User: Which sequence fits this backbone?
């Protein structure tokens, strides 16, 4: 268990928190939490920057807005070719991850984010499919205020935010509007998008709460500069791949989402509906243009209970995903004849229970979850329609012991499973329509041991883990379809690692946060799992000088490999970010410099890319200024 209440924007006490990502409301959890104060988001409004201090969590593709941010935890999620795979994401208790395990974060208003909780390690016993880790995003409390925020930075970066909040005893309302625009460090890497988020909480006389949220996201432009070879990077690291220019690679996205959540002292229920339309151009001809219409909806109910030394929760969740997928020939950016037309459906139903028993200095917890999945395909061009059913059972057990009020420990055994996504199944390497039936789910078992030391001005943790995964899924490319990603099971992968954290309040005006992780992630042939750093280190120093807050973040990412055979090594690198913030009257000013040392590193690695196009260079030093005005 790791608890950190360090704010990036202001120095504060290291306080106990009740962590909710583990579902059951216990104060002792095998969990890493990043607790972010509302004001800190004036410093860091990028999800990667906010999460970089979590051990064994690696963020990439933060500057390719066509492929979206990618997150891996202990190597789970590393195979994602776009968005997030294998990690369960929740926003205010509503699952953002589709039933088949895919997540995009582009529609979430990070400007209203309040806290983040992260579970490191497999958690299917709590959250079902694709739970190699769990990230819970929670909005900040609604306050009666109106603000305007404007950010301007290098490479044509613009971010405008307007926020309005009202609050009374029976009603809480917030409206957020955002617009982003970015020219890009690399050629053909710009983007533009807008979102509107409306949230209203109704409170009755009994204290029951009903929260209804509507979200609209529109991205008319997100260009993809593509991967470069090592020679091309040395020639000009800011150039785009010529083939991506020729085929006008990029995407357009529109999304509507409506959610509702009702809570009282014992029961919580939720329901949601999301509609996402994607038009993408990929850098190849056959099937290189994609029209995807996705409907994703579901509901869930859970009940909490407590009786003396017993604590429990049980619940049921159901969700459905319907993808209408069409592929067309991409003739140098122009849509030609159709090559694929199919309806893909993924239905899931899960039931779980968690029980915790407290006996003096001991706590014992067990959980069990059963999930059933139904996958259907209607092929409108070929004759490859079909359906399949998958069932998974995910038990876990844990024991916690408190040596004293300052020192505690735990041991946990858990299981996980991850089905192939509909996108992965539809990437058929034989060139035919229909699903790739050779692709199987991956299954994992994990043992984790941890120690936590907590004092008034200091806390530290030490965690050891070992995880075995069968039928690991990984991406690759083929000569016959250059630029298209396919997927296969590569067999067994063994993950072993150590994670160390330390948080120190050095004075009333200064805090220091240190995180280090080191691991081995070996496939059954003895090679390292690609694009997973062997080691990660992060140091964050926050100091208050009078009325000015200064924050320095230093990060080291260890070496990794770009290919499954470990022939292409990606060197380790250091980066550092510096921020300063000060309030004047009704305004708050922030100045930041990212990559202050002007380090040359890669924003993303394209695993097993054909032709050596592994590398997507990251931006060099870049500065920004931000002002928030309270109206």
Assistant:
């Amino acid at each position: 268990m790791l608890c950190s209440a360090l704010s990036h924007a202001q120095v504060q006490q290291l306080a106990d928190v009740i962590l909710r990502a583990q579902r059951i409301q216990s104060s002792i959890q095998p969990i890493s939490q990043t607790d972010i104060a509302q004001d800190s988001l004036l410093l860091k409004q990028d999800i990667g920057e906010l999460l970089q201090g979590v051990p064994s969590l690696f963020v990439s593709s933060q500057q390719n807005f066509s492929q979206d941010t990618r997150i891996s935890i202990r190597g789970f999620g590393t195979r994602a070719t776009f968005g997030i795979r294998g990690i369960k994401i929740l926003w205010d208790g509503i699952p953002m991850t589709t039933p088949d395990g895919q997540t995009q974060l582009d529609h979430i208003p990070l400007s209203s984010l309040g806290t983040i909780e992260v579970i490191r390690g497999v958690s299917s016993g709590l959250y079902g499919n694709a739970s190699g880790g769990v990230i819970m995003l929670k909005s900040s409390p609604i306050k009666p205020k109106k603000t305007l925020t404007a950010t301007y930075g290098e490479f044509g970066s613009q971010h405008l935010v307007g926020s309005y909040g009202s609050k009374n005893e029976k009603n809480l309302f917030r409206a957020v509007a955002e617009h982003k625009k970015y020219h890009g460090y690399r050629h053909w890497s710009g983007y533009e998008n807008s979102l509107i988020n409306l949230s209203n909480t109704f409170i009755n006389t009994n204290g029951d709460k009903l929260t209804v949220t509507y979200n609209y996201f529109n991205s008319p432009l997100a260009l993809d500069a593509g991967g470069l070879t090592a020679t091309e990077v040395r020639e000009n690291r800011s150039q785009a791949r010529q083939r991506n220019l020729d085929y006008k690679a990029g995407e357009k996205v529109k999304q509507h989402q409506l959610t509702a959540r009702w809570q009282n002292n014992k029961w919580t229920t939720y329901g949601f509906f999301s509609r996402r339309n994607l038009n993408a151009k990929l850098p190849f001809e056959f099937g290189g243009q994609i029209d995807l219409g996705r409907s994703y909806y579901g509901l869930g109910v859970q009940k909490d209970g407590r009786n003396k030394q017993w604590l429990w929760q049980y619940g049921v969740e159901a969700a459905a995903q319907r993808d209408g997928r069409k592929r067309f020939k991409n003739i140098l950016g122009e849509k030609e004849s159709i090559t694929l037309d199919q309806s893909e459906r993924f239905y899931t139903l899960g039931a779980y229970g968690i029980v915790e028993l407290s006996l003096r200095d001991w706590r014992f917890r067990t959980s069990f979850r059963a999930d059933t999945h139904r996958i259907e395909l209607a092929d409108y061009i070929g004759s490859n329609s079909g359906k399949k059913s998958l069932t998974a059972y995910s038990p876990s057990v844990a024991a916690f012991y408190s040596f004293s009020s300052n020192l505690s420990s735990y041991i946990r055994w858990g299981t996980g499973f991850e089905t192939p996504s509909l996108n992965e199944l539809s990437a058929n390497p034989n060139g035919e329509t229909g699903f790739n039936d050779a692709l199987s789910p991956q299954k994992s078992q994990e043992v984790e041991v941890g120690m936590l030391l907590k004092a008034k001005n200091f806390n530290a943790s030490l965690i050891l883990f070992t995880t075995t995964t069968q039928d690991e899924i990984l991406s690759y490319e083929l000569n016959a379809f250059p630029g298209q990603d396919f997927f296969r099971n590569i067999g067994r992968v063994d993950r072993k690692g150590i994670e160390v954290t330390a948080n120190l309040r050095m004075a009333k005006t200064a805090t220091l946060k240190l995180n280090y992780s080191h691991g081995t992630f070996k496939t059954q042939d003895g090679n390292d799992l690609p694009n997973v750093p062997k080691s990660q280190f992060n140091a964050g120093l926050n100091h208050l000088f009078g009325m000015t807050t200064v924050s320095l973040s230093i990060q080291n990412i260890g070496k990794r490999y770009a290919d499954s055979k470990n022939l292409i090594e990606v060197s380790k690198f250091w980066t550092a970010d510096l921020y300063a913030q000060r309030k004047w009257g009704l305004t708050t000013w922030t100045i930041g410099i990212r990559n202050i040392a002007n380090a040359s590193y890669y924003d993303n690695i394209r695993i097993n890319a054909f032709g050596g196009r592994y590398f997507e260079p990251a931006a060099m030093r870049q500065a920004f200024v931000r002002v928030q005005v309270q109206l």
The chain has five helices and 37 strands.
